[in-house]
Design brief:
With 280 residues, the chain is an alpha+beta fold. The protein has 7 helices and 13 strands. The protein has helices at residues 20-29, 45-51, 125-135, 146-160, 181-195, 215-221, 251-269, and strands spanning 10-15, 54-55, 58-59, 64-71, 76-81, 103-112, 168-172, 178-180, 204-205, 210-212, 228-229, 232-234, 241-244.
């Protein structure tokens, strides 16, 4: 803690090998805001800074202050301020093909807050949080805490995502595509013709006039939800997740399923999905 001012950011240095959700748990317990929406995302802190993980309206870049690395080319320790990390949607300078593998993240400094800063505008998160609060005897916004929001998000994730220790997966397999408004209007027009004039395609308007459309919705519309292909499958509760259904799936089965999903979405919507995962 670098400042006693209630409004000043609280800078927290976390080792790259720390389990990211353990960090989220600690932050919530000590009452620090910033990473509660990212609760229960598997992986380590170092990977979070490379991937720019995100969930429920928050990306880790929103709370990263500095990323410290070891430069394997120059053989020295270096640091990157958040503005130097080239963060984008599930992207960073560390994933750039020209430097990929050069920098080894050693620790990350996060800027958290003592001030209440709940971010509940993503999907139905606000309804879920207030519903939980009411069931526990309080609907007062002042009663919201990082721990409460973390608890609700963990419940949501457990209900729709496979438990990594039980069913193998890489989490969200595809990026949510971002399309021009004109293309989104075509997608929505086609959906209304199929489902009725009152049907609304889930989407998120972006400040630059582009529109983010959930890849999960597109995949489900193409009939992939719950389908198996050999040992691989599309998770029946969240079609954005591909799983090793039998525990013995071959890499070719996962990759083959990925390619067929990309092809069918492109044929139906004219949108090409791109994997969020790395192929090794």
């Amino acid at each position: 803690i670098l400042d006693d001012d209630q409004c000043a950011p609280v800078l927290v240095s976390v080792g790259a090998g720390v389990v990211f959700d353990d960090f989220c748990d600690w932050a919530a317990k000590v009452g620090l805001w910033g990473v509660e929406n990212l609760s229960y995302i598997p992986g380590e802190v170092g990977a979070s800074a490379v991937q720019n993980i995100g969930a429920y309206g928050v990306e880790v870049k929103d709370v990263i202050h500095t990323v410290y690395c070891y430069d394997t080319l120059e053989e020295e320790f270096v640091k990157f301020d958040v503005s130097e990390c080239g963060y984008g949607y599930r992207d960073s300078i560390f994933k750039n093909p020209e430097v990929k593998g050069r920098y080894v993240v050693t620790h990350v400094v996060f800027a958290l807050s003592r001030e209440a800063q709940p971010k509940l505008n993503y999907g139905h998160l606000k309804d879920a949080v207030y519903s939980h609060s009411e069931r526990n005897g309080s609907s007062d916004e002042k009663a919201l805490t990082p721990s409460l929001i973390r608890k609700v998000i963990i419940k949501i994730r457990q209900e729709k995502l496979p438990e990594p220790s039980v069913v193998g997966s890489a989490g969200s397999f595809f990026k949510n595509p971002v399309v021009p408004m004109e293309q989104f209007i075509k997608i929505e027009t086609a959906a209304k013709e199929e489902f009725g004039s009152d049907y609304k395609v889930p989407h998120y308007d972006l400040p630059d006039g582009m529109v983010k459309v959930p890849a999960a919705w597109m995949i489900e519309q193409c009939g992939w939800k719950g389908r198996r292909s050999g040992g691989a499958a599309v998770w029946d509760k969240q079609p954005l997740v591909l799983v090793n259904y039998t525990g013995e799936a071959y890499p070719e089965e996962i990759i083959g399923l990925e390619r067929r999903i990309i092809e069918s979405v492109k044929n139906k919507f004219g949108v090409e999905l791109h994997p969020e995962v790395d192929h090794i």
